[in-house]
Amino acid sequence: MPTVGVKRDALFKALGKTYSDDEFQSLCFQYGLELDEITTEKQMITKEQGENAESSVGASEDIIYRIDVPANRYDLLCLEGLVRGLLIYQGKIDLPSYKMLAPQDGFEHKLIIKSNTSTIRPYAVGAVLRNIHFTQDSYNSFIDLQDKLHQNICRKRSLVAIGTHDLDVIKGPFVYDAKPPAEIKFQPLNLDKEYTATELMDLYSGHAQLKQYLPIIKDKDVYPVIYDNNGVVLSMPPIINGHHSRITLNTKNVFIECTATDLTKAKIVLDIIVCMFSEYCDQKYTVEYCEVVQADGSSNKYPELRYREEVIQTAKTNTAIGTNESGKNIASLLSKMCLQSKPSNSGKTIKVTIPPTRHDVIHACDIFEDVAIAYGYNNIVRTLPKTNTIAQQLPLNKLSDLLRGPICQAGFTEALTFSLCSRDDVSTKLGTNIESVKAVHISNPKTLEFQVCRTTLLPGLLKTLAANKKMPLPIKIFEISDVVLKDVNSEVGARNERRICAVNCNKNAGFEVVHGLLDRIMMLLEVPWNPQRGETGYYLLESNDPAYFPQRCAEIICNGKVAGKIGVLHPNVLTQFELTNPCSCMEIEIESFV
């Protein structure tokens, strides 16, 4: 959940009432939020950077409320939206009506998209906030909302990048184009000279905040860029805005542009920004549209600020929540949640108007949820289900639990290891190449330790052994868990497979220990030993695997199919996992026995 930090005094001033910490926490809970932490700016900086952080010098001692908001409530990511939502919930103000106006005479808000952008960031939208009045707090909130949206719905600028500009220092129509990086040259925000786009990529490669966005366009042949009618660069999305059009406290007219790879997300982001900060305009809750001309000559006006209507059934709403409210009461509850509602004359249906700030409402169940929040979850009477159901354990989980006890009785200790591991863990360390492993790769791994989903339980157990080398020998551990394998026949391209893996670590290999455990497991599964190697029962078949010692590895054949492997691990594998004592292991899938 995103966390919004707001100054307590500014929040109470906007709400028109001073609350105690417990009272405000209760109000947040009623509205579906959570007061996560009460702190100060100095404490936050010290916590992040340590007690000797130089940046904490001069930091504010104002009390800050850090409030957790639902990830889909983009309208609550700033002080303005939070205050507006709480005041409407308390019935202190009416729902605002957002309006789109034509540009004032003599102004041309037009954004022309060139065909070159189709190869990198094909979409763009725009709008203008006219005669806006910033204070230091509202200006900070304006910048902070953009950052929150970038990290949330914009997916770190990969889907949408926001640019804001002082309209009075630039001239339309604006041009959104894509050019080779060597041809783009401008003065970036807060820098004192011009750079080419190529130079900027090198300059920002060590920047604490901007370096994470460079890969979005760095390897492309062309970079996106927005010019005004005089050829002044407004921005090079998604990296940096131009210094010439920067906004300040004195800015009166703001031009907002959003470039995107997802047009729907761009429209949502633009709606949220203009709705939240149009309250500071001379004409409150109004915004001037920008005409966006596509490469094919078609045009659209943004922001859309679209209101839509949904009709819900009163009876169905009550059934879903567990209440018995009239249509009039449900409409009143929805209006408290910024959803203007009106019951029909019969009260059987309710017409709900979805404003442009509530893009999270996409289904009737979202409306039901808002009714439940406004009604109060604690006020819903607990009832027993009207139908009797008998729950039962998933057969595969039941089998897993039944096997755990006997394996423990055989002297093995159960381990629980990570489902994610590094690429080397399932390939190089086991003597094979990653290309030959049917591994599911993580597209954006945060660490080198978690790059792929494990395809075998063995690396996790060997890491566990390495972390417990000081324990007395023998060390016998096992795990019953899922591995993830690529499968083109699966709906999602991968499938889970439940396996048992056991490792015996001792001064000698102890192959007979894991072999004995295999025999015990097969006895419990009622699968007989078949020395004739027929289609029923199980037997061992000599096999070669680089993870195992030569001629000390065998496939476990069960009912005519390969079910797993057993053998003595190769010394190279033990070295890779920093183990010095011999190990034998057994790994077998158990889903086919359910």
Automatic annotation (TrEMBL):
This is Phenylalanine--tRNA ligase beta subunit. It is found in: Cytoplasm. Its EC number is 6.1.1.20. Its cofactor is Mg(2+). InterPro entries: aa-tRNA-synth_II/BPL/LPL, B3/B4_tRNA-bd, DNA-bd_dom_put_sf, Phe-tRNA-ligase_IIc_bsu, Phe-tRNA-synth_IIc_bsu_arc_euk, Phe-tRNA_synthase-like_B3/B4, PheRS_beta_core, PhetRS_B1. It catalyses: tRNA(Phe) + L-phenylalanine + ATP = L-phenylalanyl-tRNA(Phe) + AMP + diphosphate + H(+). Its main location: cytoplasm. Belongs to the phenylalanyl-tRNA synthetase beta subunit family. Type 2 subfamily. Keywords: Aminoacyl-tRNA synthetase, ATP-binding, Cytoplasm, Ligase, Magnesium, Metal-binding, Nucleotide-binding, Protein biosynthesis. Pfam families: B3_4, B5, PhetRS_B1, tRNA_synthFbeta. The keyword Zinc does not apply. GO terms for biological process: phenylalanyl-tRNA aminoacylation. One of its GO terms (cellular component) is phenylalanine-tRNA ligase complex. GO terms for molecular function: ATP binding; magnesium ion binding; phenylalanine-tRNA ligase activity; RNA binding. It comes from Aquatica leii. It is an enzyme of class 6 (ligase). Tetramer of two alpha and two beta subunits. CDD domains: PheRS_beta_core. Residues 305-382 form the B5 domain.
